Structure formats: structure tokens, C-alpha cells
């Protein structure tokens, strides 16, 4: 059973209640690590709810074969910190070679899905929580430091994904864009000059 979700790379496997996340920009990330010879390249990663584990589909560069590695998630409960658990897993000596091309934010999302499952939420509820609301409408001043750092990391990720580099085929140097005037835009008090001329 595959579920196509709007504007995401999520997929649900019918076997073993597995959630799969496709790694969209894996080739771009490999250029960063090109100086280090990596024996494995992660193609997809996902979550297995029973037993709780991270599933990595990777390519073994030596043999050229595609393989699957199931990494158990131990000592993880509904009260666990997903960020710390993702960091621990990424830096684990047994698994770091397989997870080197998987970003920490993707591992954190997979841990969030596991935690939501342990809290009794369905997979669909967890996935909609990732897409809820427009981030531009959220008041960032009311967030905790942890949540604010997470939102900033998400914004940086979107910025890097949309950023145009000099080598990109659609790159335009010194691009100027005219924005249409909004008719019902009211005057702001800070736009007006003060009596002092500042």
C-alpha cells in the first residue's frame, strides 16, 4: 500500500507497518563528503514501528548491491528527546558509516514519528503535524528556545534547497524583480519621517 502525499517524499510500506522517507538531495550532499571514501550510500531511510527501528536502504559501493539495514532504536520512550536520540544514533560506532549521508534533521523526523506512535497517534496524524500551518503565520517570539532553534533549522534547510548557485543552469547574476503594489496596503508609522528628520 503506497500513499502519495501532496508535496512530500513520504511513502508507507505495507509490510511490517513501515514508514519510508526518500532522500531527495542525496547526490548534492555527497559532494560535501567527496574527499572521504564512503563504502555506503544511503538511498532511502524509514521507520519500522514494531519493533521500533530505523530502516536504511543503502548501496554498497564495493559490490554495487542495494541492501537493507535495520537499526534498532533502544531506550526510547514517548518522553524521549528526539534530537538527542537522533544524534546518539548518528554518532553510534556501529551505524555511523550507514547514516553518514542521512541528515540529522531527517533522523530527528523519523524519531518524532516513532515517539508519536508510542504516544498513540496514527501515522497520518504524525505526518500532518509536519505540514500543519504556514510557518509565516506563526509567532516565533512565543516559542521556547528549543522550538525556535528547530524552526530556524527548518528555514535554513528550505533556504539551502531553494538557493541558486553559480553552477545552476537557471542562475541569473544580479536578478532584479519588480513586486506589484498592493492597493489596500496602509501606511506604516515607521515609514513616515519624524520631526527630527531621521
Q: Can you tell me about this structure?
A:
The chain is an alpha+beta fold and 198 residues long. It is 30% helix and 17% strand. It is built from 6 helices and 5 strands. The chain has helices spanning 26-30, 82-90, 96-99, 104-118, 123-131, 145-162, and strands spanning 10-13, 18-22, 40-48, 53-60, 66-72. The protein has a 5-stranded antiparallel sheet with strand order 1-2-3-4-5. Helix 2 (82-90) crosses helix 4.
Give the secondary structure arrangement, pairings included:
Layout: E1 10-13, E2 18-22, H1 26-30, E3 40-48, E4 53-60, E5 66-72, H2 82-90, H3 96-99, H4 104-118, H5 123-131, H6 145-162
Antiparallel strand pairs: 1-2, 2-3, 3-4, 4-5
Can you tag this structure with a few keywords?
about 200 residues, alpha+beta, five-stranded antiparallel β-sheet, about 30% helix, disordered N terminus
Q: Could you give a short description of this structure?
A:
With 198 residues, the chain is of the alpha+beta class. The chain has helices at residues 26-30, 82-90, 96-99, 104-118, 123-131, 145-162; strands spanning 10-13, 18-22, 40-48, 53-60, 66-72.
